[in-house]
Amino acid sequence: MTIRTARQDRVQHFRPRTHCLKKLEAMVVEMQDSKSGVKGSEQKLNVTTIPHVISGKDVIAWITNKMKNTTEDAQAFGTMLVAYGYIYPLQNHRKLVMCNDDSLYRFQTPYFWPTQKWFAEDIDYAIYLAKRNIRKKGMLEPYEQAHYNHLHEWLNHKWDFIVMQATEQYKAGKERKKPDRVVFDCQERAYWIVNRPPRRTHSALDVGPERLIDPNIDEKISFDQYRRMNMFYQQAIMRSKVKSSVSLGALVKYITTYKNHDPFLAPCLPSNPWQTDNDSYWTLNMRRVDVPTKMRVERWSFSLFELLSDLRGRDDFKIFLKKEFSGENLAFWEAAEELKLGTASSMSTKAETIFKTFLAPGAPRWINIDGRTMGLTVKGLDHPHRYVLEAAQTHVFLLMKKDTFFRYLKSPVYKDIQKKAQSPEAHNFSPAQLEQNAQSRSPGIHPMILWQQEEEEKAKAAAASAPVDVKAMMSKIDRKK
Amino acid sequence: MRSPLTPEMATQEVQLNETLAHLKTESETLKTKLEEERAKLHDVELHQVAEKVEGLGQFVMKTRRTLKGHGNKVLCMDWCKDKRRIVSSSQEHAVTMPCTWVMACAYAPSGCAVACGGLDNKCSVYPLSLDKNENLAAKKKSVAMHTNYLSACSFTNSDMQILTSSGDGTCALWDVESGQLLQSFHGHAADVLCLDLAPSETGNTFVSGGCDKKANVWDMRSGQCIQSFETHESDINSVRYYPSGDAFASGSDDATCRLYDLRADREVAIYSKESIIFGVSSVDFSLSGRLLFGGYNDYTINVWDVLKGTRVSILFGHENRVSTLRVSPDGTAFCTGSWDHTLRIWA
C-alpha cells in the first residue's frame, strides 16, 4: 500500500538549506580586512611568488581572539572555513582541514564562494576537466578520470560545446601573467575539490539528499491550507495550558528525582561497563535477577510507569497483587496493550478473549470500572479496532496509579525487596586490570535468545497461574499468525 | 495559453483573491492571539526556576569505542533494548555518484528484527537470525511505501507497528505483518526529516520536525496534529522527547537546539552560542533529562545543561559531520555516527 500525498513532486530537486553561509561570509570578510584581519605575506610556490598567503596558526589565533573561545574550538571553526571553500590550503590540497601550524592557506575569491542560489553543475565540471586535459594530457587524477569518463558518456550530446568552452578558457588563461595564472589555477582547483570531493576528502558542500522544496522562495499558501491553519489556531487557542511555573517546576522535579540514576551525573555501581570494560553493571540488572539492585528498586517507586516498564518490577508488583487478589486490573491493562500494539489481523480474536475474560457479566476476571465506560467499551467491541479499549485501559491505569501503586509501596512485599536488594561496591581497577578487562570483552547473550527465554517463561507462568494468563494467550495468538 | 478573462470571470477571480487575503489576515490575527494566550500563563523563565538547582561539575567524556565497519557515510543508528548492541545504516557509494542512501534505521523492541529505508521510498523489516551465515536479505519484508525518500522510522512499543516520516511531507503508521497503512499524518508543508515517539504511559503521541521549520505533535489515534511550534529559523533535523514526555528538544540547521514545554504550549529554552553557526543534525537527552547532547555539522558534539542553558562540554574526534546521535537505553553511554565512516561510543 502506498501512502498518497497532496503535495506534488515537482521533479525539480533542491539543495538542502544551508543557514550558516551568511555568517561565514561576514566572518571571512572581516578576516580579510587590511587593518584588523589576518596578516598575509608573499610566499614562493614552486617557482612563482604568490601574494596574500596566510598561515594556519595565524588564522586560528585570529578566530580565538575574535570569538573568545578555546584554540580547539577555533581550529574546528577554521576547518569549517576550509571545508566550505572560503579558505583553501596550498600544500596538501586534498585535506580540507585547518592545521594549527605553519601550513599555508589563501582566501578563496568570492566568485568561487558557495551560495544557496546555484551550485556547481556537471557541465562546468566537464569543461574544467576537459580544459585540464587540453593543457596536459594524462594530468587528471584517477578519481577525476573516472568522473571525466562518466561525464563524457552522459553529456556526450553536448561534448562539442564543452570542448569549445574548454579551449576558449584555456586560451584566455594563457594570456594572463604567470602569477595570476597560478593563483587562478589554485582557486579553481580548490573550488572543484570542495564541490566534487575525491573519496577520502571531507567537504562541507557534500550535502545530503535533495529536498522537494526550494529554500529560496516562499511557498504560496493555498486557500485550503489557510482554512486548515485557522482551524488549528482556533483549537490551539482554546486548549487548556498550564502555567510555566507549574510545568517548568515539573521538569526540574523530574531531573532532581533521577539525578542519581543518570550515569553521566552520578557513577553507576559497580562501574560503567563502557569505562571499565567490566559487565557487572549489566549482569546485575538483567531482566530476571533474583536480587535486584537498590537503585533499581528505588526507581520503581518513582512512578507506576517506571514500575511497569521494568519487567522485573512488574513481576514484583504482580506478587503484591496476587496477595491482594486484585490482579485483574493489571492483567486487563496488559491485554489491552497487546491489542493496541499487536498485528491488525489478530485484533478481533483478542477482543473476543478480552471480553470473555474481563468484561462480560460473570467473567472470571471481571474488572470493576464505572458503568458508562463499561457500556461504551462493550458497545465498541461489536466492531473492534485498535483503540477500542482506550477508555477502559486509561480508567484502570488511573485506578492503579492513584491507589494500588501507593499501597504497593507501603506493603511488606516492597519493603521486603528493598531489604533484600543489593548495593554493589564500586570497582577500583588498576591500569593493569583495566587492560585485562579490555582484552576479555565478550558480546553478551544475543537478544534473540533472551527474547525466546522470555516467551518461554511467559508460557510457563500462563500454565501455572489461574484462571488464565491473558497476556501469554495474546502473544501466543500473535506468534501463531 | 490562458483564454482572455471575461467580465464575469474577472469578478470571480477578484472575489477569490479577496477571500484569500481575508483568510491570510485572519490567520495572522489568530496567530497573534495564540501568542497572547501563551504569554498570559508565562509567569517564569526556565533559567529562573533553574537558579535554585545545583550547577554541574566538570565532565570527562571520552570515546570508548570507535566502530569502523562501514565503508561509507554513516547516516543513522539505533540501540537495541539490550543496551549494548546497535544497528547502523550508511550510504552505498558507486564510483561517480551516490546511489542508495539508507537514511533511517531502527531496532525492534524484541531485538529480533531491524527496519531501515531511505531513497528507495520504502521501509523494510529484516528479521534477524542467530545463524551468522543466513542471508537476511532473503527474508526482507517491505512494510511502508511513501512517494518520496524515507527520512526516519521507529517501532512503537512492539515489533508489529512502525512509524515513518518522509520527504513527501507525511508521517505514517504501518502494520508490519500486512503492510497495511493504519494512519497517515498530514500537515507539514515540506519534507519531514525526523520523528520521536512519546515515552508517556499513554504512548499515543509523537513529534515530528520538518523543512517547513515546524515541529508538530500528533495524536496517533486520530491522525490529528494537536500542537505545533514554529520558532526555528531553518530546517529541523532532529526531535527528541524529554524523558518525562512533557517536553521535547529539537535540533536545526539554524545552529540552535530548542526546548518546548508541551503543557505550557511554548518554547522555553534556546541552546546556542555566537560561535556555533553550523547546523545541528541530531539531539538526545541523558537519562535524567539534565543533559542535552547535540551532534553538529562542524564535526563536534556539544553538551548542554538543559536547565541553565549553558554549554558544559564540547567533544572533538569525528572528521566529518556528526549525522546521528543516540543515548543508550540505560543511559550509560551515547553513540554518534558520522560521515567520516565511523561510529563512536562516548562515556
From TrEMBL, chain A:
The segment(s) forming the RGS domain are 303-418
InterPro entries per the UniProt record, alphabetical: DEP_dom, G-protein_gamma-like_dom, GGL_sf, RGS, RGS6/7/9/11, RGS6/7/9/11_DHEX_sf, RGS_DHEX, RGS_sf
Q: Which UniProt keywords apply?
A: Signal transduction inhibitor
UniProt superkingdom: Eukaryota
Q: What are this entry's molecular-function GO terms?
A: GTPase activator activity
SMART domains, per database record: DEP, G_gamma, GGL, RGS
Q: Record's Gene Ontology CC terms?
A: cytoplasm; neuron projection; plasma membrane
BP terms from Gene Ontology: G protein-coupled receptor signaling pathway; intracellular signal transduction; negative regulation of signal transduction; regulation of G protein-coupled receptor signaling pathway
Cite the DEP domain residue spans from the record. 34-109
Protein name, per record: Regulator of G-protein signaling 9a
According to its UniProt entry, this protein's organism is: Xyrichtys novacula
Automatic annotation (TrEMBL), chain B:
User: What ranges cover the WD repeats?
Assistant: 143-184, 185-228, 229-270, 280-314, 315-347
Q: Which domain of life is it from?
A: Eukaryota
The family database entries (InterPro entries) matched by this protein are listed as: G-protein_beta_1-5, WD40/YVTN_repeat-like_dom_sf, WD40_PAC1, WD40_repeat_CS, WD40_repeat_dom_sf, WD40_rpt
Claim: Repeat is one of the keywords in the record = yes
> A GO BP term, please?
signal transduction
Instruction: Note the Pfam families from the entry.
Output: WD40_Gbeta
Does Repeat show up as a keyword for this record? yes
User: What quaternary structure, including any partners, is listed in this protein's UniProt entry?
Assistant: May interact with RGS9; this interaction stabilizes both proteins and increases RGS9 GTPase-activating protein (GAP) activity, hence accelerating the deactivation of D(2) dopamine receptor-mediated signaling.
- Cross-referenced PANTHER family, in alphabetical order? GUANINE NUCLEOTIDE-BINDING PROTEIN BETA G PROTEIN BETA (PTHR19850)
The name on file for this protein is Guanine nucleotide-binding protein subunit beta-5
The protein's organism comes out as Xyrichtys novacula (Pearly razorfish)
